[in-house]
Amino acid sequence: MDDPKQPSWKVSPSLRRHARELRKTSTDAERLMWSALRDKQLNGSSFRRQVPIGPFIADFACHSVKLVVEIDGGQHFSDDAERADASRTALIEARGFRIVRFSNAEVMSNRDGVLQSIAAVLAASAPTPTLPRKRERERAKRAAKQRPEQIDSKQRPAAGDAD
Question: What pTM was computed for the model?
Answer without folding.
Answer: 0.69
